[in-house]
Amino acid sequence: MSTSTVIADWVAEVGGDQIELTSILQPGADPHVYEPVPADTIAFEDADLIFYNGYDLEPNLIRLLNAAGVDAQRVALGEVVPPLDLQTGATTVPDPHVWGDVSNAVPMVEAIRDQLIELAPDQAELFTANAAAYIGELNQLHDWIGVQTATIPPEQRQLVTTHDAFQYYASAYGLTVVGTLIGLSTEEQPSARTVQQLVASIQGLGVPAIFAETTINPQLITTVADESGVTLAPQALYSDSIGAPGSDGDSYLTMMAANTRSIVENLGGTVTASPF
What we know:
The chain is of the alpha/beta class. The protein is 43% helix and 12% strand. It has helices at 5-15, 38-46, 59-67, 102-119, 124-149, 167-173, 192-205, 219-228, 252-266; strands spanning 49-52, 73-76, 85-88, 91-94, 158-163, 176-182, 209-210, 231-232. The chain is globular and about 60 Å long. It starts with a helix and ends in a 10-residue tail after the last helix.
């Protein structure tokens, strides 16, 4: 089983129809603030293998996992990746949004493969083949994103989003996160002063567009756009969850491609056809 929708998507790609997969979080759910229900305890207790992100992405589910009587193997999948450390107040914390750099997905998918093989060694050949095929798609996507973001004029490669979820993306693909309303966790609430400081920063930098996120109420970021006189991109970014079935971001591959189209087009670049 898995906690987040991104992890569930990866596990489904590797395990195929040879596993029974349960995902606690559903598309559109915010892992930072998700409140567990009694059924989640049962799901943890019934599982043979549990994949979660770690780095405190899903704090309430991690607390439940540690408190429940769970015998299953637990894998903090995000913690396979060395984190970016970000300053939060007086402390430094690991950024949990590791999937923003598509190359980071490769070692996490390899970890899923290895854990599934350990659980079901008779399916090793299938899990290995599925993982190899998917890693090939990840590498293709990673290269495509790099080509697209390189078309953004250098002075416009500036990201402003609702919360600080795109540091890995920016670092991997040549952008800079110049401002966010809130920090790493959506549990935070921005003050009026924070909003005004972000407005002033946007106006000073000449940012061409800013971005809402699909898992967060867009009201405040809309206010920032209005007060700064800058465009709010019409396509919100997928940050902590894949999109609903049938949306343009209903898998990890398509959500990253959709995010890239929105970012590149609204920051003045040119997008070629996505491979996904």
